[in-house]
Structure formats: structure tokens, C-alpha cells
Amino acid sequence: MAEYYGWAGKILRVDLTTGEITTQDDAKYHKYIGGMGMAYRIMYEEAPMDLDPYDEKAQVIFGVGPLTGAGVPCSGRMNVTFRSTWSKGSSIIDAHMGGHIGPMLKYAGWDGIVITGISEKPVYLRIEDDEVSLEDASDIWGKGTFASNKWMVEQNGREFETASIGPAGENLVDYSTLNTSFGNSGGAGLGAAMGNKKLKGLAIRGTGSVKVADPKKVLELSNYMMGNLIGGNNNHNVPAQPQSWAEYSATSGKNRWSGAPGRMWKKAPGGPVDTGEQPYNDINKIALRCFKGYFDFGAPAAEYTVKNGGCSSCPIRCYTEYDVDPLADYDLPTHNSNTCMPVLYGTRVYPDGVHDFKYEGDGTMVINLAWSHAVDDMGLWDNYGNLNRDLLWILRMPREEATKYISEEEYDSLPWAWEKAGDPRWEVELIRRMAYGEGDLSVIAKGTLAMMEKFGLPKSWLDRTDGATNSNLMYNGFPNHHGPAEAWQVGMLYNLVYNRDCMIHEIVCETGSGAPYEVTKKVMEDFFGEGCYDKAKAYTPINENKAKLAAYCVNDKNFHDSATLCNWMWPMTQSPSKERAYHGDLDLQADFMTAVTGETYTQAGLQEAGERITQMLRAMTAISFQKNCGSANLRQEHDAICDWVFDKEPDFKAFEEGTTKLDRADMEKAKDLFYDIFGWDKTTGVPTRETLEKFDLGDMADDLEARGIYDQTPAGETAASEAAAQ
Amino acid sequence: MAKTDFLTADMTRRQFMKISGKSLAGLTLSASMLSLFGCSQKQVDSGAVATWALPQGLLVVNADLCTGCQRCEINCTLTNDGVCSSYISRVKIQRRLNLDGAGNGLLSGNDNCFVYFPDTCRQCEDPACGNACPQKAITTNAQGIRVVDTDKCIGCGACHEACPWHMPTVNPETGKSSKCIACGACVAGCPSGALSIVDWDAVTSAAQAAYMDL
Fold it and tell me: Which of A68, A105, A140, A207 is best to mutate for the B interface (most B CBs within 10 A)?
């Protein structure tokens, strides 16, 4: 194998049917960066979208990139590519994991693992540098992810990083995860994709290194980033509370830079730790900036916090680690940690509300932390809250209405007394039923679309304006995730691209930063052009710079999941530094690529590399939609927007101050601009031959042509002309 | 200890070397000393704080502040090896994160889930690593730091085996022992302040001030 800077230079191929394990030089994939980009190219070439997601030949591809494990701050990510079983079109999809396992894969000498085949018996993949083997996992098949990960470490040694699926994945529950470290997971049905292959998990130890072309430069750039550019979690660039060194604090008093004098980690073994002030240029206090628990739950969080945690290489510690002792009264684990959806939505399954446990106002927190541990242990995904929203929709119905959907026997078997009492065992029991596929209710964990089909709900069910039980932006089975409510038309446009929620944080990191609007607007307009950055609830009609910004976000995110960098932190758009007029440095990620790989990269080059991935995604989505939905007209079949986005808040018209609703005709114009930027046919939303050839993807153009996708005639008038006619 | 034990930085260092290898639990520190170490008496009492007497100052490791980010390992290896690695790092946190062999770590499933902290080289006065080296490749330099002479090192791993904490590690890519040279890169880049080095003159002044208060 050739030696590279950044890239390990080889990928691992594992056929679970035959047990064959081989090695492949991966230089030919370097133009796809790594991670997501590399996996898309491999899957396109080897496991066409025609395959059933559970076909023996279907692939699960673990991918890291040149920056993973190279010491770049916030680079501890691993991307996993596979096929969706629950969103419309059964198309290509990714899960994204933090923790410590991605860098460890690099230290073991691998840029990726391509898994094919189906094992006869449960196995886990053991990697110790070049020694790779499939090991018997029958002792942990059926066990939760915490016990399984512990077992794998005990079996192999404490220097191993592990990841495990839980019962949800084993039982082919579509909403399932792969879990690593403590609460770090990749979702989107990855658990079931592995469960179908009888692959319980991974155990990896690497004694090697990531070679970097210019180590001094990597250190210099890291110090520059940590001393001048980085903010709090989501790169929020002003502290939530006033600090003596800071010109600004969050205008709302709240953001994810939530550590502050008097805000304590009260359950630290050696007594309370005051998170104190964290001047922006003090590298040794960065880890105290984010106090995610305080952001999520306010003062009660401090009572239960032990310390902060997070991923390898990242100075921003977005996981709060708790000891929630009231849960011991219910025989539930008290040590819990997560940063995202698992700690935010547990209370949704308590239509009668929750109560305080030990401290005033701690009810939401205790219930959510019980949810977090239970879903992480079962390896159950929530599809960014659709699991909780769909459960709430039915759980809050009167018995006679709910039993139209689930049997009376099942309804009466639910431990309702626990729900009424706000008992955390209620949610744990619901989670168990979901993870084991028990009863009619568990169809909810097969996906919103599967639930709608089973319950006979019409497509218009997704048009409802009840935000508590419906936030689906499109008709594809996944919800709003940083969409138009935070990012106007830009948020709607970038949500159109993927086959799951978009996982794009480029804009919400700015709108949620807490800096005064005018300060952030100046930064954004200096980087992305006039008129790109609307004020909260005071939106303006679409313009070209907004469409360009949306396209930038898509390409940037795709680069991040390929490099790999954390998209919650990168790019460095804003800075906490007054001296910099709060401007970050968008070129820094390219500078890191150059320093690590020794090849010259520019931000424009990274956009091009990211767009190559965008085009592959779009072409592969068209193929899967043609096969599974009968039409590859993505404008109609994939990019249609639910009515509530335009019809909510009836007292307002779009673009009036006070609403985040969008306008139909304006949004169709926005799609026209967006498609134009990406070189997609305006009628079908499919990349043209010229576009694909521009990105050296001529073989994909040939494929689309051979499949007749370029010949397709829209089934009727386009949405754009419909809207124009209104 | 008497006030006269802290008349010079060198004397102070020797006093602290006596307690190296243990946590500070059981010692009552003055307010100025606590401020200097960035910790509380309760943290000292709980065993969360350990100190190691390095030639250039007192290394303070505060387990309650460690958030497991591995930046100490990153900065160590980029600085000293020109590559990024965990295994050969001279400061080691990864091996304590999941299960540390003493009942702590994220996967322990008990009350010590969130107890993890970096292991550091102690720069021992009587170094087991150096004593065990068949090539006499580990020597003391002018600053009093025990360093590996890579020309002599044959990568046999005797230093790794002999060290009670297995801190020196043979780099599988170079075949040489990667032993800590107390460069301070891990401390400088620690984003939580879990690692710090306090200059001996400052420790001496604080120790003297404490005795003045008595």
C-alpha cells in the first residue's frame, strides 16, 4: 500500500456470508474525500439502488476521512452509509457517529470498512491494527448496548473502542442505532442494517498513527482556531450570560455557551466545580463553555451534573454527564449522558404531564434522562422526534379513538397508572415495546410512513398544523431539522436534498448564536452576499444569495461528513473575538486539509468536492425513486413540501413580521434558483448530463439515460407552473 | 514538613517528590496553594487531585475537570512524533475512558462511570523504566528530565514493562520508546485545565506564605 498523509490509504472489506476479509488500496476514492463521499462512490459502483436494502449484497459502509484522527479540533466523527428502510424511496442514507471510535479506526490503519453479506450467526468485527477477525457475538446477542460494549472491552482489553447495536437493531426495527462510548450513536436505521447482517458491533484498537504532512502547521492552526475562532457548542460565539471580558452576551440570555460563574457541576466527586468565566482566548477553559444541561433544563441540571463529556479531539464538550439519583427509586440507571434528541423529547409521551422529583423544576430533566438511557441501551432511534410525536398523537387520544388504531387488549395492557403518575417506568416500557416490535403501537418505530399505511392515514395527515405531533416538512417520512423556522427559505431548500433529516447546522449555528442580529448579519453578508440573512420571524422573498447559501450549506455538510468534521461546530463562520469584528475564518478547513494531506486545498475546492457528493446523492436518489416510487421526477416525488409550512399561523401572511411561514409561489421560485445552481433539470430536479460530467460522473449520466430517467415526462403540470397559475 | 523545607524551589520540589505517586488526600492546603493549583480542599480530600514533581514545576492532574477529549494525546504526539496517535502518547487518557481496570470508566455501569483522567509520566526520582533498560538508553538530561537516547534504544519494551503505570510505549512504527520528556504540550493544550504545571518558585512562595500564616 502506498503511504499517504491524512488518509490511512486502505479500506477493509468484510463479506459476512463467506467470512472473507480483504484489504483494498483506496487512492482512487480520495477525490471523494472519504467518509460519506467515498461510501457513495463505492455503493454506486457495487451495490446499486435496485437492491433491496436487506439484500445479501447490500452494503453498510463505515467511513472516516483524512482529518479524522489527525488532531484537528472537532474531527472525531465517523460516517456510516447504507440504505433506508423507512423513508420514501428506500434510498441512500447516512448515520453519523461521534465518540472515539472513528479516530481509533484511523489509528488502526483504515479509512473505512465495507460490509457485505449476511452472517449465519451473530458476530462482531474485531480490528486490532492489521489483525481483523469476525468473532462470536452470541453471548451479547439480545443484550443492550451498554452491556454489549462493556463485554467487548472486557473480552479484548481496555484500549479497544467499541460500538454495538441493541435489541432494536437485532429485531430489525427501522428506527435503530449503533451506539458507542456513552450516548454517542449513529441512527437512521443503522441498527437494523447491521442486525439484518447479524453484525452486533465493532471492537477496534489501533496502535498506529495518522501521518500529517505538516504537524507544526496543524498545531499552529489548532491554536489559532482555539484561541481566536471557536465559540461554544454549535459554535455559538457569545456567552449566554454576561462575562467581564465579553462585549455581548446572548440577547435572549440563553445559548449553548452556557457555562457561567455560579453555574456548577454539583455532583463532581470532589465537590462543585464552578464553570466560571471562559475568556474567548483562554484555551484552557474552552471545555467549560458548553453546559448543555443548563441550556436544556436550567438550574436543576446543575444539581445532577458530574462533568462534561464529548468526542475525541473536540474541546467543546457538548455532553453533560449526569448522576440523576431519583431514578434509583425506580430501579433505573442514574448515570446518564447525551446531548441531543434523547434528552429533549421524553416528556412527549406523557400527555398528562410530569412532576418534580427532588428539586423544583427537575421533572422534565429526570424524565428525559430516563428516556435517554433507555433508548441508547435498546439502540432505538427517534427520527429526530417523530417517534415521540407519533406516540403522542395516539397516546393523548381518548381510549375509544386510540383503539381504532391499536387493539383494546393492547391499549389496556399499557401501564397507564405510570403515565398518570409521571413515572419514568412508563417511557421505559414504551421504549421496550418499540425495540422488540411488540404490538400494533410498535409500528411507530417502523417509521411515520409505515405507521400511516398501517393506520390508514391519508397523505394529508402530514399537512396538519399541529406542531406537537407533526413537523414533517416533506412527504418522505422524516421531520423538520433546522428548517425554515430557523433559516427561512434556506432551511427549506437544504432539507430537500437528503433521504433523512438534513443534519445541516450551518445556519442554526448563526441564528442561535446569541449575538445581536446586526452583528451576525454583517458576518453572513460579508461571507455570502447581501440579503442572504433574514431576521427571525421577519422573512423576505427569495433571492439568489439565499439560494446560493443553501447550496453552500449542503456541499459544506457533505464535505464535513467526508473529512470528517463535526457539522455542529464547523465551519468557523463567526468568532467570539471583538478584534475580528466577530468574523470567523471559512478558509480554515481548507487550510487544515492542506496541512494534514500535503495537497493544496482551497475553500472553493472543498465546495466542489462537496458538490460532487451532492450530485451523486441526487442521481442515486433519482434511481431509487424510479424503482420504488414509479417516478424519478424528484421535484414532484421527493421535493414536495407539506401544506402546513405555508398554511400555519393563519393570522399572518408570509413575509409579515411575526411568522416563519413560507409562501408557495416564492418557494417554487426558490427551487428554480436552487436547481439552477446545482445544474438540475427544473422540471424533474434531476442532475443533467452536463452537470454530472462536470463532476467526472459521466457514468452516472449514462446510467440515468439507460434507465430512461432523462426521457421521463412529468405526470402533469409542474408544481412551479401550478403555483404560477394560482 | 517545616517552613525550612520550602526555602528554595529545589527544596520544595524534593518535598513534593516525597508525595508523588499518591494523591494529595490527607493534606490540608492553604488558600493560596489551592488557588495556585486551581482546585478545592474537597477535591484534594476526595482524591480527585494528584500532583507530580517535574523538574520545571508541579504537575497537577484534576480528575474532576478531565472531560476525556484526548487533546493531550493529540498535542503530545503531534509535538513529539510529528504524527497523531493515541497509543504512543506519553500522556494516556483513552485507556481509562471505557474501563480502566479499577472499576472506573464510561462502560463500568456503576457510580464511577464518569471517573476518568489522564495518566502522566511521573519523572520518578528512581525511575523503574531507566533502571530496567538493558541499553542504559534512558538518562537524565541537564534539566533533570529522564529522556530516551533513541540511538541506544532497541525498542525491547523493558521500560514499558518495568514502569508501574506502563507509561513509556514502544512506537511500533519507529521501534523506539516514546517516553515523556516533560515538554508541557499536553498541559498547554488541555481545554479544561485538568492538567496544569505550576512553576516551582510559585509553589515555594505559596508554601512559605502558608507557614507565615501559621
Answer: A207
pLDDT tens figures, A358-405 = 999 999 999 999 999 999 999 999 999 999 999 999 999 999 999 999
For chain B, where are the alpha helices, taking DSSP H only? 9-19, 31-37, 41-46, 71-80, 94-97, 128-132, 158-162, 185-188, 200-213
Please report, to the nearest 10 degrees, the dihedral formed by the alpha carbons of residues A453, A454, A457, A461 taken in order.
-70
pLDDT tens by residue, A85-103: 999 999 999 999 999 999 9
Interface check A182 vs B, CB under 8 A? yes
CA atoms of B54 and A716, how far apart (whole Å): 78
Interval A141-153: pLDDT, tens = 999 999 999 999 9
pLDDT for A720 equals 47
* Nearest C-alpha in B relative to A104: B86
Are A313 and B106 inside 8 Å of each other by CB? no
Parent domain of B207: 1-65+193-214
Closest CA to B123 of B145, B139, B148: B145
- pLDDT given for residue A721 in this prediction: 46
Q: Which residues of chain B have pLDDT under 50?
A: 214
- Chain A: nearest CA to B214, how far in angstroms? 26
- Which of B44, B109, B188 is closest, CB to CB, to A146? B109
Q: Which residue of B has its CA nearest to A322?
A: B114
B173 and B206 share one domain: no
Q: Does A181 touch chain B (CB under 8 A)?
A: yes
Overall domain count for chain B: 3
Cell readout for A569 is 461546530
Is B214 an interface residue toward A (CB < 8 Å)? Answer: no
